[in-house]
Amino acid sequence: MAGDLVSTEWLEAHLGDPAVVILEVSIDPSEKAEYRSGHVPGAHYVYWKDLLWHDSDREFPSPEVMAQRLGALGVGDDTTVALVGDPFQFAAYAYWVMTMTGQKGRPRLVNGGRRTWLAENRPLSVDVPTPALRSLTAGPSDMRSRIGRDEVRAGLGTEGRVLVDMRSPEEYRGERVSPPWLEFDHGAERSGHIPGAQSLYIDELLRDDGTLLPLDQLRARFAAVGAIDAADVITYCRLSHRGSLAWFVLTRLLGLSNVRVYDGSWTEWGSIVGYPVER
What we know:
By secondary structure, the protein is an alpha/beta fold. It folds into 2 domains: 2-119, Oxidized Rhodanese, domain 1 (3-Layer(aba) Sandwich); 146-269, 3-Layer(aba) Sandwich (Oxidized Rhodanese, domain 1). The protein has 10 helices and 10 strands. It has helices at 8-13, 48-52, 63-72, 88-100, 113-119, 149-154, 169-173, 215-224, 241-253, 265-269, and strands at 5-6, 20-26, 44-47, 80-86, 107-110, 146-147, 161-165, 198-199, 232-236, 259-262. β9 (232-236), α9 and β10 form a beta-alpha-beta unit. The longest helix is centred in the middle third of the chain and has 13 residues, at 88-100. The protein is globular. The protein starts with a strand and ends in a 10-residue tail after the last helix.
């Protein structure tokens, strides 16, 4: 599945290709998004929650709704979707959600996302493209790569299970509940980590330009926390974006099949009455 990770060179070579729809998946709503100041030519802006969450519930959209949303962005049955993250892990989250909501095999994750595209001085545009509405078939739902809080708690201390916390060291140690680069520290009522979880900060998987490390180094990083030889691997972070990038590396690049993302992550776990916290 390594072909699901594509380079910025690949993306530039496919600018204008009608078979490739480019989506910039942003952490910020439209009025704040960096997309407005310049983006990959032809890329459509999407706010991550609008594309990837149910309209009202903290849940994923149905395959039918996902197909409608992507179709409104010009995605058809013959289309590849190139996901550009702002930041990188938000595109990985989109990739993960699309595989669960009927679009497995369609998305490609652009290595490094917006940060790398800008660092390489690749072309930018301020023109906002108008997508042509297309019909997209809704595939089957497949939630096997997702795990919920009750199953995580029930398995605490289970031999062969490894929980990998992809948050910053400050979050893991309980000094913050959100990443250091967020000015407003919010996202959970308690700080710390899930008991027994191993710390692997997402930045340890990246080169200076924001792209992923070579495969041997990625494997070594995960081996150091016991994930490579574990029977069951669960990744998490604060909202599961960093956890989904770890899932992508482990499953699509390193070939593991026993990896799930705890999508509630610390925002949920750190706010539930009666759930154990370790520091």
